């Protein structure tokens, strides 16, 4: 039975209030998406023609204008590097009735779950109804609406007025933290559970116990968050909900209620096993360093100038279109390592009205619960911002916070976003009591905006000043170039100034865009002051909500590019020979694609990024993923070691992404390396057009291709399956990689294994092989060999694979550091490679059982609750 003294602290929300909140949430989401809601449109951060060779092909054919390529959010490349390919592959497998565990289209083979793909995430059922990538619009509409409505429900149940809770809807759905996640939609999925979890935690603690259905709901919500595979936001959600529940429990002296919440969290962990066990296994094998230098976190933390986004939300974002590819405000604001990159990690602004209203939350709280929540979320905001900025004292706190340093500290801005929403909504709720204070802060903000606007106008002017603008920003670009060690400051300044002046239209657009950045908040601050002067009560609240919608919508223009699906899914015409070879390829053949890039000191369009080939249906040797096989990167670095250099720009020209997969090569001589024959690197997309052609390297560039690019074919690649009667045993990693990197070694005759006894054949073995089955998780072969030897399959090894010979399980040998192999005796054999080790197949089964248990708790708990008489709760007054 409910405790009336506790339950009456919560508000019963009326149905019409919920409908109004859902309407606002949907309308703001639609404003964010625009035409992206259509299923024939793909929601992406920038056009695919930002990459070569699509860029030159589209420009020469007149399918796109250069101005269109300059729009969008250039920091959002993970949409092309990860999400698109994985979602497309996931859709194909789900529609075949399979939950994929492995894919052979990315990196020649990779475990499916850890690579930002979520086959166990319920939201991916949309892929059964809507073709990828046209499903992103519907996906974003539902997520933005639910994220906003969740904020409304949490605040309204806690006693915030309907106007204040409606304001939270706008901030949650349209806040720039949400808008900047277009590059990784799974981040928003991980965040979606935070509001309902906070609501359940508050109800349970105030009641003094957690009901059965609440335990089940906590399990489902947390299981969904962790099943995205995006650990930081899921972890922050757990920390936030746990700290909030603990704060209330201590204040209300209901600590026992935490037991039920803990049981729900444990149930959520069991539900997420299917996703998280493969992630944890992959992390243990990842090429990423186990420990990162603390100075790295400091160097990549939030800079104090990021706080300028409080006044100017689009300070670090492209205002699209018609922008230069470099974002000038970001260059000035970000520290040197990040000046060209990652404004998506620094987006957290909720607009100027929210910033001005947040301090109002501390004025005359109506209840003890209000006071506790205000100070809790204020403390949360300050603590999270201090960690994101690596401020002394706050930064040291991360050493005792498990998981805090597993990624970018700037991701703590998610918690800043949540805390700021609550404070701003409470501030609007209390505004009618102290309008003169809001008038004061509005006037102060207006003064700051007008002063900044005046400075910019005096320096460059709204109609002239292009020469001064080019000289100023040329010198700032030169500082970065000097940081990279490419040239002297004087020469770099002259070079960049000349480059900027050569594009007066783009330069003028960039200057006008920065001018708009200062002008719009000045107008917003002026309207805030005027509305506070002339309006009050409901009218003032509605005006401020509308003003926030307008500012956030305008600041986010360009972060969403709604493009025709066929435009994203159409591969470059230059790769037609690769697709023709792919169509003719038999399972035993290899026709994998790699890249050869030209080192250069200047930013250039990326060359057909890894994973985009997989989206278009190619078998790509390269891959970008968050948890690559450590062996994958080690082997490619052995094939082409990075040149030692103090030059930061040259040092990044290496085959790997430094813990995030393999990109391609930079040294032409690498194309002659024999290990590329084993790996099946048959085609090479190259920005080196001067390579000498031989019988083993043929130019396959189609007529009409970009003059700056070439497509080469290597004719020495080996079959996917080979049999060798000679092996070397090298247990230690360093000498093994040194042997594999030796260009004079012949891996077609000798393989390297790590255990067992070396085979001493003559190197001239013969065998016959036939593929009976070639599925991602199962490869079945009929093999006939005349002598004892090693069967090598040129597909990546992973701890989840096992092998059987004639129905008997055999040792799966890691061959040549990264591939699969098994020893065979003379005769005919049935060899089966299967991706079904116990830790691969059992977590999904345990997750299913835990999910069924959660559903039973929800159904039984709700039934018992409906049969038990409860004390009435206080209904909310919409005019509070």
Mind summarizing the main beta sheet?
Answer: 5 strands, antiparallel
From the N-terminal CA to the C-terminal CA, the straight-line distance is: 29 Å
Mean pLDDT: 87
Beta-strand portion reads 5-15%
Q: How large, in whole angstroms, is the Cα Rg? A: 29 Å
Can you describe this structure in just a few lines?
This protein is an alpha+beta fold. Helix content is 48%, strand content 11%. The longest helix has 31 residues, at 504-534.
Overall description:
The protein has 880 residues and is of the alpha+beta class. The longest helix is centred in the middle third of the chain and has 31 residues, at 504-534. The strands form eight sheets. The protein has a five-stranded antiparallel sheet with strand order 15-16-22-18-19, with no helix packed on it. The protein has a four-stranded mixed sheet with strand order 6-9-11-10. Strands 12-17-21-20 form a four-stranded antiparallel sheet, with no helix packed on it. It has 33 helices and 23 strands. Helices cover 48% and strands 11% of the residues.
